[in-house]
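[User] At your convenience, examine this fold.
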Amino acid sequence: MTDFPTNQTQPGRFRRAWNSDLGWSFRHAPVAMVSLAVVLVLVLAAVFAPLIAPHDPFDPSTLNLMNGFSKPMEPNAFTGDTFWLGTDDQGRDVFSTILYGMRISLFVGVMAVAFAMTLGITLGLIAGYLGGWADTIIMRVADVQLTFPAILVAMLVFGIAKGVTPPEYRNEMAIWVLVFAIGLSDWVQFARVVRGAAMVEKSRDYVAAARLIGRSRSAIMLRHILPNVLSPVLVIATISLALAIIAEATLSFLGVGAPPTQPSLGTLIRIGQGFLFSGEWWILAFPAATLLALALSVNLLGDWLRDALNPRLR
C-alpha cells in the first residue's frame, strides 16, 4: 500500500477560506471589498505614521509658526513650503496630524471594544449558564445602564475615573481612562447576546455529556459553550468598533477625551471647528472626512459580516 503525501492533496488554509461560504459572500459583495480596502489603507497608514508622515506634528522643534494656515497644495506666502492638506494655526502639517491622530482613535476603539467584549462575554456566560440570582443581578444592571445613552455613561465614567487619578498622572492615563469609559458603556449588548445564546446551548447534548464526565462549570462555559456563541459576538464587535471610534471622537470633541499632547481625530476636529467660519476649512474638513471614511467602512464591514453569518439569508 502506497502512502501519498497529504500536503499535495489538501488545499491551504487561505484557499479553503477563500472558497468557503464566507469567502464566496465576500467575493460577491463589492461594498465589503471596498470597505475592507479603505480600512486596511487607513490602518496601515496609522501604524506606519512615523515612516509616512512628512513631519512629526507633535515635536515643537520641527514646527514653524510662519507656516500657519497654509492652504492645501499652495506654497506658503512666507516660507514657500507646500503641504498636501495644508497646515493649522501652529504650522502643523494636517496630513501628519491626521496620521498620528488616527493612531490614537484606532487604539482607543480597538482596546475599548476588546474590554467591552471580554466583560460582556464573561457576564453573559455567567448569567446564561448559571441563571438564578447571578442572572437576575447582571441583567438588572444591564437594564439600568440601557436606560441611559452610552455617551453619557462614558462621560460619567470618564469624569469619575479622571477625578480619582492623581493630577500628575492624568495626561499619561487619559487614554487608558478613555478606553475604560467607552468599554464600560458598551458591554451590555455583548452580555445580552451571549446570555441568550448560552441559555440555548446549555440544553444541548454535548453540554450534558460534559457534565456527565465531570467537567467543571468554567470549563464547560469556556471550552464548550463559548466557541458556539462567537459568531454573533464577532458581528457585534465589528459594528461596536465603529461606534467606539465615534464615541472617542465625540468625547474628544467635547474636550473630555484625548489630551492635547496626544490628540485624536476628535481633538483635531474640535480644533478645526474653531477656524471653520474664518476661511480655514481644511483644518476641519480633512480630519472629519478621515473619521467618516474610517467609521463608515468599519460599519459597512460589520453589516456585511452580519448578513454573511446569518443562516436565514443563505
Notes: The domain at 22-54+71-313 is CATH 1.10.3720.10 (MetI-like fold).
